[in-house]
Design a protein that fits this description.
- The chain is α+β, with helices and mostly antiparallel strands.
- The protein has a single domain (7-100), classed as BMC (bacterial microcompartment) domain (Alpha-Beta Plaits).
- The protein is 42% helix and 25% strand.
- The chain is built from 4 helices and 4 strands, in the order βααβαββα.
- The protein has helices at 15-23, 27-32, 48-61, 86-100, and strands at residues 7-11, 40-47, 65-69, 77-84.
- A 4-stranded antiparallel sheet has the order 1-2-4-3.
- A hairpin with a 7-residue loop joins β3 (65-69) and β4 (77-84).
- α3 crosses α4 (86-100).
- The protein is globular and about 35 Å long.
- The protein starts with 6 loop residues before the first strand and ends in a 5-residue tail after the last helix.
């Protein structure tokens, strides 16, 4: 599996960390989180074009909920959050890494 630059997986995120992340989400994305089991959160920082591409790969690979996080970076660098259970988030991140390495996911 290829390593995804500027990425992390948070396993068993605390309530406070979840709140920090959710505050950075648009209201429509927050509403979509209702009923989503959040045992892990995958975070990927990239440009806007890649964020949309990675979100599509992730959703096709696993039962995750993707959300764009808003920040204050002027260079159009944003963060994608992938919410779900541990295996789903790991599968989604693996699929993105495989795509980056030129493998089929």
């Amino acid at each position: 599996m290829a390593t995804i630059p500027n990425s992390r997986i948070i396993h068993a995120p605390s309530a406070e960390v979840k709140e920090m992340i959710v505050r950075r989400m648009p209201a429509s994305a927050r509403a979509g989180l209702e009923g989503v089991r959040i045992d892990a959160i995958g975070l990927i920082q990239a440009n806007i074009c890649n964020i949309f591409f990675y979100a599509d790969i992730a959703q096709k690979a696993a039962a995750i909920y993707p959300a764009e996080l808003h920040g204050s970076c002027p260079q159009q660098i944003v963060t994608l959050a992938l919410f779900g259970d541990v295996s789903a988030v790991q599968s989604a991140m693996k699929a993105i890494g495989a795509n980056m390495a030129g493998e089929k996911s």
